[in-house]
Amino acid sequence: MISLKTPKVVVLGAGYGGLMTVTRLQKLVGINQADITLVNKNEYHYETTWLHEASAGTLHHDKCRYNIKDVIDTNKVKFIQDTVKKINKEEKKVILENGEISYDYLVISLGAHPETFGIKGLKEHTFSISNINSARHIREHIEYQFATYNTEQEKDDSRLTLVVGGAGFTGIEFLGELANRIPELCREYDVDHKKVRIICVEAAPTALPGFDPELVDYAMNYLQKKGVEFKIGTMIKEANEHGIIVAKDDKLEEIKAGTVVWAAGVRGNSLVEEAGFENMRGRVKVEKDLRVPNNDHVFIIGDCALIINEETERPYPPTAQIAMQQGETCAKNIAVLIKGQGELIEFKADIKGTVASLGEDDAVGVAFGKKMVGTKASFMKKMIDNRALHMIGGAGLVLKKREV
Ligand code: FAD
Ligand code: NAD
Question: What is the pTM of this model?
């Protein structure tokens, strides 16, 4: 039985941060100590970190998702499948599409939205790798271009051009998958491979800015050998129904393309800005215990949170690795507040490494302080992914989701 005084904990979003919070919190508090509610748009969690595969069509989207109720303790956590419309921090309420819910403690873990920097036409004419729906849409759109190409009297070769905006980790990983998928599509739809172009446009002077230059070279050479053309130091200025307009050294160029995928950065969920929290591109600079300054009852974690790495004096990048670690800290701190025992702990990131896949069996990365490339790096990436599944759903989930 939950008494009237039982504190209400509401967790918004069942991504890496939200699920980690809930699965840890359900172990830390007794059934009568907290009334925990998890709200998520879908009944499933998706592995955002695999969406580039589903988008290219190299992995079925069902492999990237699992039922939320399979990993939470439904005796302790109430799951509401609904869409958050508004966070009313003054009244401690969350407005959902189908109702509203009040809270004593709120965890905001609603993930990111694509950052379009106000560039003209991007929202209307490009795709983003954001969730299961967008991944499915990208895959279908690409396949449609190939499936219908040969049916036209006057063939438009630009329909077989694919542009990826941004050579950050998302862009590079998606290119790796595309490079493997395109030969399959060419075979399936009798399309001449020579007519297909995969172009990556990157504004910075290098791909994967800030990453180890030797690993960047490896990744670029690998992808170039598979047919990817890089336009480095080139900025996307506009998108329209024909493709994109780019600029390099003040010179404009039009690239006609049937598919443009914008993978050039993210910002925090817009609900965070709309709620009136002080933020930078939708990310709130939280205290070390992950609470919002002057809002002691609100925790923000994952891609909506901003924490400065004191070693580099730059914000930690928005990653699943960090979101999960923040979920653990957040759960511990909520348990302390609820029980009124112990001390709040500070979030400490423990970055084990970063590995970018280059398709099914190649990758580049640094893990446990060691640089690695090729099958070894690819194996490491799979181990990291499996670990994330294991932390939330145990060995059963790993076996269900991976062919190990
Ligand atoms: P998410 O995991 O995105 O979860 C947010 C949840 O909130 C979702 O379930 C969503 O449905 C829900 N939601 C959103 N809006 C609403 C709403 N209005 N109402 C209800 N529910 C809502 N990071 C790594 O560390 N390693 C990687 O290898 C890696 N690979 C990546 C590959 C790709 C293609 C992409 C796009 C990102 C990758 N990242 C990786 C980054 C990583 O995925 C994110 O940093 C991570 O998902 C953030 O976790 P989160 O909990 O903040 O949000
Ligand atoms: P990002 O911000 O890391 O990279 C975006 C890239 O787009 C940058 O290189 C930027 O210079 C470029 N860009 C921006 N505007 C542009 C323009 N107008 N024209 C051309 N290029 C432009 O974003 P991301 O790759 O989406 O990654 C988001 C987060 O997810 C990051 O924190 C990343 O580390 C994480 N992530 C991690 C992995 C992994 O660990 N394997 C994989 C994917 C994403």
Answer: 0.97
